[in-house]
TrEMBL record:
It comes from the Eukaryota. The lineage of its organism: Eukaryota, Viridiplantae, Streptophyta, Embryophyta, Tracheophyta. It comes from Solanum tuberosum. InterPro entries: DUF3444. Residues 45-249 form the DUF3444 domain. This is DNAJ heat shock N-terminal domain-containing protein.
Length: 273
Protein backbone atom coordinates (compact mmCIF):
# COMPACT_ATOMS: atom_id res chain seq x y z
CA UNK A 1 0.00 0.00 0.00
CA UNK A 2 1.27 3.47 -0.84
CA UNK A 3 1.06 6.22 1.77
CA UNK A 4 1.29 9.93 1.22
CA UNK A 5 2.74 12.37 3.74
CA UNK A 6 -0.62 13.34 5.27
CA UNK A 7 -1.66 9.73 5.84
CA UNK A 8 1.70 8.81 7.36
CA UNK A 9 1.66 11.76 9.72
CA UNK A 10 -1.94 11.02 10.78
CA UNK A 11 -1.16 7.38 11.52
CA UNK A 12 1.91 8.31 13.53
CA UNK A 13 -0.03 10.93 15.47
CA UNK A 14 -2.64 8.35 16.50
CA UNK A 15 0.09 6.00 17.68
CA UNK A 16 1.86 8.69 19.68
CA UNK A 17 -1.42 9.77 21.30
CA UNK A 18 -2.06 6.20 22.42
CA UNK A 19 1.46 5.90 23.83
CA UNK A 20 0.88 9.02 25.91
CA UNK A 21 -1.68 7.10 27.93
CA UNK A 22 -0.65 4.84 30.76
CA UNK A 23 -3.61 2.49 30.30
CA UNK A 24 -4.55 0.82 27.04
CA UNK A 25 -8.25 -0.11 26.76
CA UNK A 26 -9.02 -3.82 26.65
CA UNK A 27 -9.15 -5.08 23.10
CA UNK A 28 -6.89 -2.30 21.84
CA UNK A 29 -3.50 -2.75 20.24
CA UNK A 30 -0.32 -0.77 20.78
CA UNK A 31 1.11 0.36 17.45
CA UNK A 32 4.80 -0.02 16.71
CA UNK A 33 5.96 3.41 15.54
CA UNK A 34 8.99 1.90 13.85
CA UNK A 35 6.72 -0.07 11.51
CA UNK A 36 4.43 2.82 10.61
CA UNK A 37 4.92 4.63 7.30
CA UNK A 38 7.03 7.76 7.47
CA UNK A 39 7.53 10.56 5.02
CA UNK A 40 11.20 11.40 4.75
CA UNK A 41 13.43 13.06 2.25
CA UNK A 42 15.48 10.56 0.33
CA UNK A 43 19.14 11.52 -0.04
CA UNK A 44 18.89 12.57 -3.69
CA UNK A 45 16.22 15.13 -2.77
CA UNK A 46 18.68 17.09 -0.66
CA UNK A 47 21.71 18.89 -1.99
CA UNK A 48 25.01 17.29 -1.00
CA UNK A 49 27.24 19.38 1.28
CA UNK A 50 29.93 21.18 -0.66
CA UNK A 51 32.87 20.63 1.66
CA UNK A 52 32.38 18.27 4.60
CA UNK A 53 31.06 14.72 4.32
CA UNK A 54 28.53 14.67 7.13
CA UNK A 55 27.49 11.18 6.03
CA UNK A 56 30.83 9.88 7.32
CA UNK A 57 29.64 10.73 10.83
CA UNK A 58 26.77 8.29 10.33
CA UNK A 59 28.87 5.41 8.98
CA UNK A 60 28.54 2.03 10.71
CA UNK A 61 31.84 2.37 12.55
CA UNK A 62 30.63 5.55 14.28
CA UNK A 63 27.94 3.76 16.27
CA UNK A 64 28.75 2.62 19.79
CA UNK A 65 26.70 1.16 22.62
CA UNK A 66 25.60 3.85 25.06
CA UNK A 67 25.57 6.73 22.58
CA UNK A 68 22.59 9.06 22.33
CA UNK A 69 21.54 10.05 18.81
CA UNK A 70 19.14 12.52 17.23
CA UNK A 71 16.77 10.59 14.99
CA UNK A 72 14.38 11.30 12.12
CA UNK A 73 11.11 9.45 12.77
CA UNK A 74 8.36 11.97 12.07
CA UNK A 75 6.82 13.69 9.05
CA UNK A 76 8.71 16.98 9.30
CA UNK A 77 12.08 15.43 8.27
CA UNK A 78 13.98 17.21 11.06
CA UNK A 79 16.00 15.40 13.78
CA UNK A 80 13.90 16.11 16.85
CA UNK A 81 13.59 12.64 18.34
CA UNK A 82 16.25 11.01 20.48
CA UNK A 83 17.31 7.48 21.29
CA UNK A 84 20.14 5.53 22.86
CA UNK A 85 22.13 2.70 21.29
CA UNK A 86 21.54 -0.25 23.62
CA UNK A 87 22.76 -3.12 21.47
CA UNK A 88 24.54 -3.61 18.14
CA UNK A 89 24.30 -6.86 16.16
CA UNK A 90 27.12 -7.54 13.72
CA UNK A 91 27.10 -11.33 13.32
CA UNK A 92 24.63 -11.89 10.48
CA UNK A 93 23.56 -8.35 9.67
CA UNK A 94 23.99 -4.87 11.09
CA UNK A 95 21.18 -4.10 13.53
CA UNK A 96 20.91 -1.23 15.99
CA UNK A 97 18.62 -1.70 18.99
CA UNK A 98 17.37 1.69 20.16
CA UNK A 99 14.78 2.77 22.75
CA UNK A 100 13.32 6.22 22.15
CA UNK A 101 13.26 9.17 24.49
CA UNK A 102 10.02 10.95 25.32
CA UNK A 103 9.76 14.47 26.69
CA UNK A 104 9.16 14.78 30.44
CA UNK A 105 6.34 16.98 31.77
CA UNK A 106 7.47 20.58 31.48
CA UNK A 107 8.39 22.65 34.55
CA UNK A 108 5.77 25.20 35.59
CA UNK A 109 8.15 28.02 34.68
CA UNK A 110 8.27 26.93 31.03
CA UNK A 111 6.14 28.73 28.46
CA UNK A 112 4.28 25.78 27.00
CA UNK A 113 2.82 24.97 23.62
CA UNK A 114 -0.94 25.32 23.52
CA UNK A 115 -0.82 22.46 21.00
CA UNK A 116 0.34 19.52 23.12
CA UNK A 117 1.29 17.51 20.02
CA UNK A 118 4.11 19.91 19.14
CA UNK A 119 7.49 18.20 19.13
CA UNK A 120 10.00 19.09 21.83
CA UNK A 121 13.65 18.99 20.83
CA UNK A 122 15.21 20.69 23.83
CA UNK A 123 14.59 19.90 27.49
CA UNK A 124 14.22 16.88 29.79
CA UNK A 125 13.61 13.39 28.41
CA UNK A 126 13.13 9.86 29.68
CA UNK A 127 12.53 6.34 28.44
CA UNK A 128 8.87 5.46 28.75
CA UNK A 129 9.42 1.74 28.32
CA UNK A 130 12.17 -0.75 27.57
CA UNK A 131 11.05 -1.47 24.03
CA UNK A 132 13.94 -1.64 21.56
CA UNK A 133 13.37 -0.43 18.01
CA UNK A 134 15.51 -2.15 15.38
CA UNK A 135 17.37 -0.30 12.62
CA UNK A 136 19.29 -2.08 9.87
CA UNK A 137 20.39 1.14 8.15
CA UNK A 138 21.68 4.43 9.52
CA UNK A 139 19.60 6.80 7.36
CA UNK A 140 17.32 7.61 10.28
CA UNK A 141 20.19 8.92 12.41
CA UNK A 142 21.46 12.49 12.32
CA UNK A 143 24.16 13.06 14.94
CA UNK A 144 25.38 12.13 18.40
CA UNK A 145 23.95 14.31 21.16
CA UNK A 146 25.12 15.04 24.68
CA UNK A 147 22.47 13.76 27.09
CA UNK A 148 23.22 14.75 30.68
CA UNK A 149 21.88 12.25 33.23
CA UNK A 150 19.92 13.83 36.07
CA UNK A 151 17.69 11.93 38.47
CA UNK A 152 17.05 8.28 37.75
CA UNK A 153 15.91 7.75 34.19
CA UNK A 154 15.83 11.45 33.26
CA UNK A 155 18.26 13.08 30.84
CA UNK A 156 18.77 16.69 29.83
CA UNK A 157 19.33 17.57 26.17
CA UNK A 158 19.90 21.27 25.85
CA UNK A 159 21.65 23.77 23.60
CA UNK A 160 25.38 23.95 24.36
CA UNK A 161 27.97 26.61 23.68
CA UNK A 162 29.38 26.33 20.16
CA UNK A 163 26.47 24.36 18.73
CA UNK A 164 24.26 25.50 15.85
CA UNK A 165 20.49 25.28 16.36
CA UNK A 166 17.34 26.11 14.44
CA UNK A 167 14.95 28.30 16.44
CA UNK A 168 11.36 29.06 15.54
CA UNK A 169 10.93 32.41 13.83
CA UNK A 170 8.19 34.55 15.36
CA UNK A 171 7.91 31.98 18.11
CA UNK A 172 4.91 31.92 20.41
CA UNK A 173 3.07 29.35 22.46
CA UNK A 174 0.27 29.53 19.86
CA UNK A 175 2.26 27.71 17.16
CA UNK A 176 0.22 24.73 16.02
CA UNK A 177 1.55 21.48 14.59
CA UNK A 178 -1.42 20.28 12.56
CA UNK A 179 -0.33 19.12 9.11
CA UNK A 180 1.83 22.14 8.39
CA UNK A 181 5.16 21.15 9.93
CA UNK A 182 7.15 22.10 6.87
CA UNK A 183 5.52 25.54 6.76
CA UNK A 184 7.19 26.69 9.97
CA UNK A 185 9.89 29.29 9.52
CA UNK A 186 13.17 29.20 11.37
CA UNK A 187 16.24 31.24 12.21
CA UNK A 188 19.67 29.65 12.42
CA UNK A 189 21.71 30.56 15.51
CA UNK A 190 25.03 29.76 17.11
CA UNK A 191 25.03 29.25 20.88
CA UNK A 192 27.61 31.56 22.47
CA UNK A 193 26.81 31.10 26.16
CA UNK A 194 24.43 29.17 28.41
CA UNK A 195 23.61 30.23 31.97
CA UNK A 196 20.96 29.26 34.49
CA UNK A 197 18.56 31.91 33.19
CA UNK A 198 19.50 32.66 29.58
CA UNK A 199 20.85 31.17 26.39
CA UNK A 200 22.92 33.72 24.46
CA UNK A 201 22.82 33.29 20.69
CA UNK A 202 24.06 34.99 17.55
CA UNK A 203 22.04 34.80 14.37
CA UNK A 204 23.71 33.27 11.34
CA UNK A 205 23.30 34.46 7.77
CA UNK A 206 23.63 32.49 4.55
CA UNK A 207 26.79 33.22 2.60
CA UNK A 208 25.99 34.36 -0.93
CA UNK A 209 26.74 31.74 -3.54
CA UNK A 210 26.25 28.78 -1.20
CA UNK A 211 23.27 26.76 0.04
CA UNK A 212 24.44 25.65 3.46
CA UNK A 213 27.42 27.84 4.39
CA UNK A 214 26.65 30.38 7.11
CA UNK A 215 28.42 33.16 8.96
CA UNK A 216 27.48 35.22 12.00
CA UNK A 217 25.23 38.01 10.77
CA UNK A 218 26.69 41.52 10.88
CA UNK A 219 24.13 44.08 12.00
CA UNK A 220 24.16 47.52 10.44
CA UNK A 221 24.46 49.30 13.76
CA UNK A 222 26.04 46.65 15.94
CA UNK A 223 28.36 43.81 14.98
CA UNK A 224 28.23 40.41 16.60
CA UNK A 225 24.93 41.19 18.27
CA UNK A 226 24.05 38.77 21.06
CA UNK A 227 20.40 37.88 21.65
CA UNK A 228 19.34 36.50 25.02
CA UNK A 229 16.66 33.82 25.08
CA UNK A 230 15.14 33.14 28.47
CA UNK A 231 15.42 29.52 29.61
CA UNK A 232 11.66 29.55 30.22
CA UNK A 233 11.33 29.88 26.42
CA UNK A 234 13.53 26.88 25.63
CA UNK A 235 10.81 25.43 23.39
CA UNK A 236 11.90 28.05 20.85
CA UNK A 237 14.83 25.75 20.13
CA UNK A 238 13.67 23.32 17.47
CA UNK A 239 16.71 21.10 16.92
CA UNK A 240 20.47 21.06 16.63
CA UNK A 241 21.99 21.17 13.14
CA UNK A 242 25.34 19.41 12.69
CA UNK A 243 27.97 21.88 11.49
CA UNK A 244 31.59 21.97 10.38
CA UNK A 245 33.85 24.99 10.85
CA UNK A 246 35.65 25.73 7.59
CA UNK A 247 39.36 26.60 7.53
CA UNK A 248 41.38 26.14 4.36
CA UNK A 249 38.48 25.54 1.96
CA UNK A 250 38.32 27.87 -1.05
CA UNK A 251 41.89 28.91 -0.42
CA UNK A 252 41.04 30.00 3.11
CA UNK A 253 38.48 32.57 1.99
CA UNK A 254 35.80 30.80 4.06
CA UNK A 255 37.87 30.49 7.22
CA UNK A 256 35.62 30.76 10.27
CA UNK A 257 32.43 30.14 8.30
CA UNK A 258 30.24 27.13 9.13
CA UNK A 259 28.90 24.55 6.72
CA UNK A 260 25.65 23.04 7.98
CA UNK A 261 24.44 19.52 7.31
CA UNK A 262 21.72 19.93 4.65
CA UNK A 263 19.82 16.96 6.10
CA UNK A 264 19.38 18.88 9.35
CA UNK A 265 18.12 22.05 7.69
CA UNK A 266 14.51 23.02 6.96
CA UNK A 267 13.95 22.31 3.28
CA UNK A 268 12.82 25.82 2.37
CA UNK A 269 16.15 27.26 3.52
CA UNK A 270 17.96 25.06 1.01
CA UNK A 271 15.75 26.48 -1.73
CA UNK A 272 16.63 30.08 -0.86
CA UNK A 273 18.62 31.90 -3.50
Amino acid sequence: MDYNKEEATKARGIAEEMMEKDDVPEGSFELDLASLPTYQLVPNQVREPEFYKFADERSLKKFQIGQFWAIYIDGDTLPRYYGQIKKIDLLHEFVLHVPWFYACPLPKSTIRWHDKTMLIGCGLFKFRNSKLNKYTVTNNFSHVVAAKPLKKGVFKIFARTGEVWAVYKNWSAQLMKGNNLENFEYKIVEIVNVSDNYVDVKFLALVKGFKSVYIIRVEEEETDKVVKICVSEHLRFSHQIPDFRLTKEKGGSLRGFSELDPLGMPMYLLCTD
